[in-house]
Design brief:
alpha+beta, homodimer, Hypothetical Oxidoreductase Yiak, Chain: A, domain 1, 7-stranded mixed β-sheet, Wheat Germ Agglutinin (Isolectin 2), domain 1, Ribosomal Protein S8, Chain: A, domain 1, about 15% strand, 11 helices
């Protein structure tokens, strides 16, 4: 799809002003814009300003508290449960991440389960923050239901991502950031817009039958868990999604599974509430609590180089290192700008019209 | 394949006596036999007494220290690095797990990375131990290379399992125990013995080409990571295997990736050593460090019941809960006995002949 390039800093300022329009405190607005910008820079287009209109709608309708206070409701030396006060996940998540990192600095590791929060952007942003402090960061969140359990015919779980990152010395870090379903919902939408089929194994229709028709998934069908079917190990992707849900929501007191509240206005409301908001799980490990950090980073370098030297499978250039594609995107987009499709630009222009905040169109 | 049923307690006593034959201390021998028995009872046949001859060989050749001391080489309030002294993983793993659980009781969570150890049995045993103390247990280990990274044509990573368990109140616990490859090596061997094909997506041949021939995998080919190929999300299974390897080995100072030492005698030796032995990563979370445990367990019950009520996909009876198949096996085998195939029985009889320890053949 044709896309215009927008300078990252201009999109950032626009985003900050949109959050400020709803009286989100200045620091919080900048944090939220930073998380969204990170998605756009790293090529995860579905999680950047493409979502700004949804945040706009939720704030406009009072569904999210722009000035929420984050509070610790229970804690131990290495753990905490945080209540996000129904604030922006883009603000609550980073604050909970700070708590996890502070706990790690004091106790070797820190683990924070978060309730009463909203979508927190890309899981990977949180672990990149931990990397800046020399920590191993973990990040998980549950999300609105989209995925069928193996042998299920309906959406019961979110795409429930897991992120974790490990620093190298001379090599770039290993950065893992993956949804626990086979393919992202954004890929289904892209296929629909392009009028093309999707591979078998990505989705099922409303009857639970595997489908290659993106519309059949979107119209009441479901994504499939990583592994897709029994032979492919679909029970494993399903189990990982359950793990993320329990750590994020049952441990904090948030909604889980099919009861996670919708992120976008057009999504259906859950049949009941079993907790508060959605849930995240954020963790940090201090490397020197286990091993000399320089030795660890040297070994990461060695592992990265060893994996890159793997004999390539036919038709490929050999294995990538987790995080390579995002780092490549960040390099290109930081230089050339962020490509926005026309529908996303239209959404931003709609926000601009309704708030009076100008959207710069070109560098 | 035809199988004879053996009473669990007689196999247990045989196993204890085999370890005692090599002067493994009595308590350690019973622990090791308990871990192996758990695999046999839970239906994970590849990890039970089917492996006893391999342990026998390794002990017989002095490759494993039967009287190893486990020592903490670095620690913080919530973490530790443990050196297993090249002991049995079936003994080192449980001791490291104890340390993780003690740390959790004191600091809310406990995380132990282990080096200089050997294969530790089923990952699930460790998290079941944590359940007994009311803790959420985590367990990972790296293993001898068998799996190709996505776009790789050779074995570079182990099957690197992840286990985690969550207790319910009235419902049985959710117990996740999964290798990070699509299918277990044991399934490839079963297909070879049966002379049947394997599904596309499980394995590649020695040139990195996906294959349905089990011999092509066994003869220098590789297992494929969970997700199998790029479209199926094979980069995610690969990333999970890397995650397990880093936490288990790079954080502890063990060997990783293609340098993990072989478990069985017939396996090739790695080209170099990058650490000590293999590595495990064991963790525990205290539930009451996050939320009231009764409330948590009630929510787990609700989640289990909710997932069981999922509308079934055509041709299925609906989703299972992770841990269902193993619990079912445990119930049947605890009553009827453990089925051993003739090759496994032959191996046990060989041990019996060489040690003079009688193997009871029937209930």
């Amino acid at each position: 799809m044709a896309a215009d390039l927008y300078p990252p800093d201009q999109l950032f300022e626009f985003t900050v002003r949109v959050f400020r329009h709803f009286d989100v405190p200045a620091d919080d607005a900048r944090t939220a814009a930073t998380v969204l910008q990170s998605a756009d820079l790293r090529g995860i287009d579905s999680h950047g300003v493409a979502r700004l209109h949804t945040y706009f709608d939720m704030l406009d309708l009072g569904r999210i508290n722009p000035k929420a206070q984050v509070s610790i409701v229970r804690e131990s030396a290495s753990t905490a449960t945080v209540d996000g006060g129904n604030g922006l996940g883009l603000v609550v998540g980073p604050k909970a991440n700070e708590i996890a990192m502070e706990k790690a600095l004091a106790a070797g590791s820190g683990w924070v389960s978060v309730r009463n929060t909203n979508h927190y952007g890309i899981a990977g942003w949180y672990v990149l923050e931990a990397l800046k402090r020399g920590l191993i960061g973990w990040s998980m969140t549950n999300t609105t239901r989209l995925v069928a359990p193996l042998w299920g015919a309906e959406r019961m779980l979110g795409t429930n991502p897991i992120a974790i990152a490990f620093p190298g010395a001379e090599e770039p870090p290993i950065v893992i950031d993956m949804a626990t379903c086979t393919a992202a919902y954004g890929k289904i939408e892209m296929a629909r817009r392009a009028g093309s089929q999707i591979p078998l194994g990505w989705a099922a229709d409303r009857n639970g039958v595997p489908t290659t028709d993106p519309n059949a998934m979107i119209d009441g069908g479901a994504l499939l868990p990583l592994g897709s079917d029994r032979e492919g190990g679909g029970h494993k992707g399903y189990a990982l999604a359950v793990m993320v849900d329990v750590l994020s929501a049952l441990l904090s007191g948030a909604n889980w599974g099919p009861f996670v509240p919708p992120f976008a206005l057009r999504q259906e409301m859950p049949t009941r509430s079993v907790g508060k908001g959605i849930g995240h799980f954020l963790g940090a490990l201090r490397i020197d609590a286990f091993i000399d950090p320089d030795e660890f980073k040297k070994q990461i370098d060695d592992m990265v180089r060893t994996l890159r030297r793997t004999r390539p499978a036919p038709g490929t250039e050999g294995p990538l290192i987790p995080g390579d594609p995002e780092r490549e995107a960040e390099s290109v987009r930081g230089r050339d700008g962020i490509p926005l499709t026309q529908p996303v630009v239209e959404e931003l222009l709609d926000i601009s019209r309704r708030t009076g905040i100008p959207l710069e169109k070109r560098r």
